[in-house]
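Q: What does the assembled structure look like for these inputs?
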Amino acid sequence: MCGIFGVMDRRRQMMDGSGIRQALSMMNERGSGEGAGYVAYGIYPEYQDCYALHVFFDRACENKAAVDATLEQWGVIEHDEAIPTCDQPNLRVNCTPWRYFFKPDASLAPGSASPEKDIITDLVMQINASVNGAEVVSSGKNVGVFKASGWPEDVADYYRIEDYEGYIWLAHNRYATASPELWGKPDPFNLHDWSVVENGKITTYGANRRYIESFGYNCSTGTDSEVITYLIDLLVRKHGLDIDLAIRALAPPYWEEIDRMPEAKQRLNQALRFAYGSATMNGPFTIVAANPEMMVGFTDRGKLRPMVVGECGDRLYIASEEAAIRAMEPNVESITRPGAGTPVIGRVAP
Amino acid sequence: MAKQITIDAKGVHYTPLNQQIRKAIDDGADEIVINNVLGQRFIGNGLRGNAVIRVNGVAGGDLAMFMSGPTVIVHGNAEHAPGNTMDSGKVVIHGSAGDAVAHSMRGGKVFVRGDIGYRGGIHMKQYEDQRPILVVGGSAQTFLGEYMAGGLLLVLALDGVMNAREIGSGIHGGEIVIRGNVDESRLAAGAKKMPLTDEDRARIAPVIREFAADFELDAEPLVNADYTRIVPASARPFAGKYTWE
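A:
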């Protein structure tokens, strides 16, 4: 069931985390107290040229040396520290959240069109697959994921998210159904630029995972949002698709709809379905994704999950419920419920 | 003299809110005004009697579920499934509503002035005198009347937009009436178009007039407009799909 929320300011006006905390808490009926998380863009301006790696250590004193050594092989750690936290009575802490500000050495990925991101991708896969007791939960520039197993308010207060200011925020209130309540499990999921929150269950998970793993991505958490994040990264960064085409590949129109399209459009949609058949996602879902330049929302073709969109001035909101938007923006100017196959794409002003 | 009770719902969870509503009815209230509603679910669930409940704000999911008798008037939008398995009474929504409006409704009326989401009227049903009615002023989305088993689903498309496709997917009872022509391609397998007869029009006219009165619309042009009537092609649309005889 899950509740998801996203807000973006087109002019990069900063929002602290208090409004997002309140919005997410409006959807507690959609959660089970076993997972919540936030991700914000623009929170580390003093380190904006570094990749911010948020890492959960089971036991920092034992597991950290291996991560330090791996990172130092591939670049320079400009700074690292424990993420400031504040104990909450209802939150059982079982790991130490840490952050690195890291500059990869681009010369170590010769021939790549995006060497830094290739290195970061490889490092995230490598650490999550092979370093025991360490999990990278976010890895982008000027962005960070804050998540834990608990109710949204406790998770927000634990990380003191009201102390962070971002121009895009995504948040997730998890109703745990499939996997145990580990801290790394809830959304948001992040890989450098892209972050994803999902409400739903992708029934084609196995096929999608096999497809994305054939490109070298390693799915270590077993969550939908991990596969979705990697698929978006592959289609947009590696294959160069515009985001609207990437969404169309992931959640394509039914064949009957394609048959009704004018010829040129029909051929484009057929080509996408043929090329990306194994990336097509089925099952009930609403997904909100973001990178530093945009926030997008889309649903499954049969529209089995809710998606409400609000706009107010430069702010774009996407949420599971209207009440969450109004909790943050009582005077919201428009509320709509876009149909399946109508992605919502909001871009930050250049 | 009518007794009115006002409740402030600001920051109140739905459980204490519904307890306050029930207490107001026990105290003899004829009209209950609930202010500052923001997404509280289950408002008016299982309520009996004939009170009028005014909801000012955004009503949360499953508004008036299992309700039997009262009238709920929402000045704002509603989330998913208002009128879920409602038994009798009336829900009037001045804004729009989410997916699965009138889900499994058994009787009474749900009037929505704006648009509704996907799967409106899913599995509405009827039994003897129990005939639920859902009227939508704006547009409905796809899978309108999915698995519909009874009752009347009327879409007025007042803004000239009707988004629904796959209309009447799995319909095996009841009727869907949509203002204007509906192309055959928008019907799902198992649904078929029928002309709206004079008897049909006489039957829906009082419903249109009641809807128009609730929202201060001019009724007669709507009563006299062209409509498409959609009914089940058979009482067992999937007889050959899921069973073999």
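Chain B has one domain: 4-242.
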